[in-house]
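Model it.
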Amino acid sequence: MVGATDSECLSFSSDYFLLDGSFLGDQESPTTVKIIYKKDKEKQIIVNNSEIKPFSRHIGRIPCITFSPSEMIVVNGSPVERRRFIDNSISQTNRHYLNDLLSFKRVLMQRNALLVQLKENINVHTGMLSLWTEQLSRLAASIVYARLQFIAAYLERFKELYTQLSVNESPKITYRCSLGNMSNDSSPEYLYSLFMAKYKETERQEIFRAQTITGPHRDDLLFLLNDKEIKKYASQGQIRTFLIGLKLTQHRFFYEILKEKPICLLDDIFSELDTTRIEDIFTILETCGQTIITSAEKKGNRNVTNLSIESLRHIQKERECQE
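Modeled.
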């Protein structure tokens, strides 16, 4: 269940769940992963018999691409969903970006807490806001720079893949920065200077509102088809195709950088698509390595092995009997 909490993944009669997986990478490097959750304890992630803390250290270790109908909100939902998409995409291939993102969230929380104190006239050192602002500007500049570089590289691959989906449409992705329009060749130092100037300009407003109103936590991605905003003008089929294109491009992007083919977990990917589009997707998936697709309807393809729920239950029963 995408977006479900750990407690919601428990069976009603259970106090814990255990996920136990073994993975073999393209470089023939085996990895074992266990995820343990108990109602009264913190979740554990154990990789190759060693517990991973913090959990962020596991991100990107086993690259994975997901698709589910609930993820349509990446295209037509709120900006937070698109920020989550781009952050996930970069973090799986760029550890420095992930560290900056985590640090930014911590510094942002501290700065916002200080803004609350300043609004309420609580006695705080006047230099504290400048200190947090400088740190936040450095991290914000690094994050926005990485996002701009990612979009430039990603869009090229996205357009190429989109032509394989039998679509006579031109897709585009634009980064909406809270600083205004930014070019891909903006340097981190230039972005840092812009953030410092912007925070100085809006300081009184931020104190009044007790929150930081500029930064990567306020940015968005603009998705376009034929220069029209997709969330306003596209059909459900177009939105689904756009998301599928985004996800399959993720696979190619990860593989180019990591030299490891991500696992594809695709739920109900073919709904609302015609036969030609379905065949196009199967053709692309043939190059994607291991792919698991769930569907309410059986789809025929020479490279697909079909397993019904009944078959899986039978296999599980056989394993239980053997144990």
